[in-house]
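User: Quick sanity check before I run a bigger batch. Here is a single chain. Can you write out its predicted 3D structure?
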Amino acid sequence: MFLPTMATTNAMHRRIVEHVQRLQAAPIPVRLLHSMAWLEEGTKTTDDTLIANCAETVRISGEWLRGRHRGLLAGAAIDTWDTAALAALPVRYNVMRWLGLTGKTVIIDEAHAYDAYGHRLTERLLEWLGHTRTPVVLLSATLTGSIATCLADAYRRGAGHTTPITLAPTYPGWTFVDATTGQVTTSETLPTTRARALTITMQSVQHAASPANPDSRLATITRTLQPMTSEGTGCALVVCNTVADAQATARHLRQAWTGAHRPLVQLLHARMPARQRDALTRRLEHWAGKPAPPTLAAAATTCALAASDRRGL
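Assistant: Done. Predicted structure follows.
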């Protein structure tokens, strides 16, 4: 499974480990593969499996799979999207990547979350996966029809079907591409009880102005979040463009909010040490679930949009 960021892979790794343990009678190695995986708790114990036991040889598959270029050979692997994209490029040890990818079901989450170059790499990857008849699951809640068409066409081209198609994705819903026949099936919009109304309000602010100025960025944020302090309920995520802005926002809110209903304020940004950022991300995931604190405000950089597990925040 491939996700946009390290934080989402960490959260998904914990869930996949639990899922595999429930499904498999015999344990299989589950590998977290990104470059900072060694900092994640549990990565050195969850995939250790006895594969040989005799008078002379005892091998632990998890230890062997922690070697370079071997991780995708595990029964289940979770990594950032760039590892899969490397398979579409002429780089060393590519045969190891393809040996690990083929024979599995490849899942790419947030398929819309990549730039034009990343989108082209994804297309090329899907062509090869279609050629090898590897099952692929692309997950997205906001994929446009044109991009969905490009991705589906890429998989079909790899499978030998060159006739172009046009997709009109349904949300929520699914689209199935048959690698054998090239036929495309799209479901009707599935009924859901989770429909929500979204209100978007645009406000012009003066970024560098003093908080005493009512039109300043910090004053506008404080005024917008005022119901949280008066009512004592609600959660808010303030996304800032820079680390300095996020720090200033968290500092200002902590000073501005007083009283019995003062919301809890947390700061999250990419310059934090990995262990601290991971601990904060887990804490925010826990707080955003059940049970949750009455009020919570998180000031963060744009990394929070993809780095936090969106199912929790």
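Residues 6-23 form the longest helix (18 residues).

User: Great, the batch can go ahead then.
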